[in-house]
Every structure is written in structure tokens, then in C-alpha cells.
TrEMBL record:
Its cofactor is Zn(2+). GO terms for biological process: tRNA queuosine(34) biosynthetic process. GO terms for molecular function: metal ion binding; tRNA-guanosine(34) queuine transglycosylase activity. It is an enzyme of class 2 (transferase). Its EC number is 2.4.2.29. The lineage of its organism: Bacteria, Pseudomonadati, Campylobacterota, Epsilonproteobacteria, Campylobacterales. Binds 1 zinc ion per subunit. Catalyzes the base-exchange of a guanine (G) residue with the queuine precursor 7-aminomethyl-7-deazaguanine (PreQ1) at position 34 (anticodon wobble position) in tRNAs with GU(N) anticodons (tRNA-Asp, -Asn, -His and -Tyr). Catalysis occurs through a double-displacement mechanism. The nucleophile active site attacks the C1' of nucleotide 34 to detach the guanine base from the RNA, forming a covalent enzyme-RNA intermediate. The proton acceptor active site deprotonates the incoming PreQ1, allowing a nucleophilic attack on the C1' of the ribose to form the product. This is Queuine tRNA-ribosyltransferase. It comes from Sulfurimonas lithotrophica. The gene is tgt. The active site is at D90 (proton acceptor), D270 (nucleophile).
Length: 373
């Protein structure tokens, strides 16, 4: 991986990340393709319409179905999906958290039962890396111990101690495998934990950032805390993260969350929000959220967002999209998903341009001003 810090505007950063498969300009939002596909879209949509240089796939889900060994035989994620750009794969730690009724963290890994057939599995730091070697992702995330908030200080302390120990095992194993010729074009990120406890975040960030990782993520947020608590935690944590490596905030969030956390020094984001909300009838626009299922749109000839250049907005009216949603037409899911992801990716391009011009503060004010009309 090559990393360049192109410009700053106060703490906001514009960077360039080069992997074996693509050149990624930040700030960047990574569409979520859990099973190697973004729901309702094909790869032509992702490449030609969205111009996405990186998407996220899920280690836990692809391990269970179709299986990481099957994906390896089919040309790894790039060959299997035909997406030629970069993949980031998460480690399964979040799935252990979100499926806590069928999973249990232990000292040496996470035990869980498949949500598909109930079969028992055990993820260790090394096994997670082996799976991601089979997936062939450009950026892999290590196994971490994530806790829901609020949590006791004792549980948070255990979380970061366990995460640090797993991180030490992971980086040693990953670098050893690279020396053996395995995963030489892959990169690995560690995940900072600590809840919203600043002392715990400082400890986790300091310990992890001393290790030989290619980048660092902030995990364990947007899991029950207030927005201002998330923002304060990010602002506190980024000061302990290297300036010469990517900074990734996992699982966040709304357009407002992205704008706020770019201001606090974050480079990379992912979230299911634009795709999931699209399927449920909520569309993101320059002027805020729009619930397209509303009866008031039944005869509205205007586009979803007059400022948007996506194919959906350029061709179709709110009335037509409203009709498709209310009729449960399959076409709706593609058009709505395309719009929401286009909006998110274009917002990141606008943010980058503002940073390059050293006017991010003004850009943020303009962003909120449109939403208050």
C-alpha cells in the first residue's frame, strides 16, 4: 500500500491510498457488499455509475456462504465477483457482537453458531487472517472484541486487553505469512476499542499504533452511544493515530456523521445505512432525508434531488419512484440504491475538494445550511 497525505484543512484530511487493485482518494465512503455484492446492484452499476474504487465484504458471512475456500477456487473476491477494484473485508468481530445470542467471546477467540444452520464455529486471530487470505481482500481487518454501550469499565478494559493481545498475534502471523509469499499484496488494519471512555481509548490507541500495521480503525462506536459522545471519542482518538497511515471509522453512518468525523481527521467510512434505507423508502438528498413512500409524492414531477446527477434523478420523477415503491416493484430497489450511494460518494468528492481548497469549515456550514431550509 502507498499512502499520501495530499492536503489538510484544519484536522480534515485529503489522502490517496494505492492498493494492488485501485487508487482510492479520501475521504472515502465504502459501499457495503456483505456477500461480495451490493444489494440490488450489479458490478457494472458499481464500477461505471458509482465509480467506487473500494467496497466492503464480510468475512463472517462469506466464510459461511459460499465459503472462503470456494471463493479462493473461483479467483478470490475479485475474480468471483468480477469487481476489479479494491475490497476491504472485516474480521467477524462485529458479527459476533450483533449476533451475541449465538456467539461468545473467549480468551483465544470467538465461538459462534451459524445463523444459517446452527453449526458451531470458532474464530481465532489467525483463522480470521487465513480466511481473508482466501478472500484475497486488499485490506483485511483483524479480530477484535467489541462490546455494546453502555458497558462497565471492567468489560471495556477486558475488551481492549483482549483486542491488543489478538492484534499482537495477528500482525506477527500476517508478516510471517508474507515472508512465505502469502498475502504479499494484502494490507492489514488494527481496530482501536475502548467504548466512550477516553482513558481506555488512549490506552488502546497507544498500544495498537505502536505495532506494524498498514492502517488503523476506530471500532466500537455507533453501538448505542449518543452522537456527541461518538464525535468526542473520535476527536480524542485520532490524536493518537499516525498521520502517515489511513484512519477508518467503522460502521458510521449518516451524512451528518461523515461530515462531522471528516472534520475530526477520519479518512474512511462504511455503513449499510444508504443501501438499507433505500430499500425501506428513505432517500438521502442535499436537503435532508426524504421518505418516498409518502402520499404527497404521488404526483410530484420533480427529481428526488434537484442537485443530484445520478441516473435515477436525471431520468425519473418522485412520482414514479413513489409508484415503484408502493407497488413493490423490483426496479425500485435498484434505482433507490443507486441514488443513495451516488449521493454518499458524491458528498465525499465534495468534501475532498473543500479540503484541497482549505475551505472545509465553510463547506460544512453550507452542508448544514441546505438542511435547515
Amino acid at each position: 500500500m502507498e499512502f499520501t497525505l495530499d492536503a489538510t484543512s484544519n484536522k480534515a484530511r485529503a489522502c490517496t491510498i494505492k492498493t494492488a487493485h485501485s487508487t482510492i482518494q479520501t475521504p472515502v465512503f465504502m459501499p457495503v457488499g456483505t456477500l461480495g455484492t451490493i444489494k440490488a446492484l450489479d458490478m457494472q452499476d458499481v464500477i461505471d455509475t458509482l465509480g467506487a474504487e473500494i467496497i466492503l465484504a464480510n468475512t463472517y458471512h462469506t466464510y459461511l456462504r459460499p465459503g472462503d475456500k470456494t471463493i479462493a477456487k473461483m479467483g478470490k473476491l475479485h475474480g468471483f465477483s468480477t469487481y476489479p477494484k479494491s475490497f476491504l473485508t472485516d474480521s467477524g468481530g462485529f458479527q459476533a457482537f450483533s449476533l451475541s445470542d449465538i456467539s461468545k467471546p473467549k480468551e483465544d477467540g470467538i465461538e459462534f453458531r451459524s445463523h444459517i444452520d446452527g453449526s458451531k464455529h470458532f474464530f481465532t486471530p489467525k483463522k480470521v487472517i487465513d480466511i481473508q487470505h482466501n478472500l484475497g481482500s486488499d485490506i483485511m481487518m483483524i479480530l477484535d472484541d467489541l462490546v455494546a454501550l453502555p458497558a462497565t469499565k471492567e468489560r471495556i478494559k477486558l475488551s481492549i486487553e483482549r483486542t491488543t493481545e489478538w492484534a499482537k498475534d495477528s500482525i506477527e502471523y500476517f508478516r510471517t505469512k508474507q515472508k512465505e509469499g502469502i498475502g504479499v499484496d494484502q494490507n492489514i488494519f488494527a481496530i482501536i476499542q475502548g467504548g466512550i471512555d477516553k482513558e481506555m481509548r488512549t490506552k488502546s490507541a497507544t498500544e495498537l499504533c505502536a505495532l506494524d500495521y498498514d492502517g488503523f480503525a476506530i471500532g466500537g462506536l455507533s453501538v448505542g452511544e449518543l452522537n456527541n459522545e461518538m464525535y468526542d471519542t473520535v476527536e480524542h482518538t485520532t490524536q493518537y493515530m499516525p498521520e502517515d497511515k489511513p484512519r477508518y471509522l467503522m460502521g458510521v453512518g449518516t451524512p451528518e456523521d461523515l461530515i462531522e468525523n471528516i472534520e475530526r481527521g477520519v479518512d474512511m467510512f462504511d455503513c449499510v445505512m444508504p443501501t438499507r434505507n433505500a430499500r425501506n423508502g428513505t432517500l438521502f438528498t442535499s436537503f435532508g432525508k426524504l421518505n418516498i413512500k409518502g402520499a404527497k409524492f404521488k404526483e410530484d414531477p420533480s427529481p428526488i434531488d434537484a442537485e443530484c446527477e445520478c441516473p435515477t434523478c436525471k431520468r425519473y420523477s418522485r412520482a414514479y419512484i413513489n409508484h415503484l415503491f408502493r407497488s413493490r416493484e423490483i426496479t425500485y430497489f435498484r434505482l433507490a440504491t443507486l441514488h443513495n450511494l451516488y449521493y454518499y460518494l458524491n458528498l465525499m468528492k465534495q468534501a475532498r475538494e473543500a479540503i484541497l481548497q482549505d475551505r472545509y469549515t465553510e463547506f460544512k456550514k453550507e452542508f448544514y445550511a441546505k438542511r435547515s431550509k
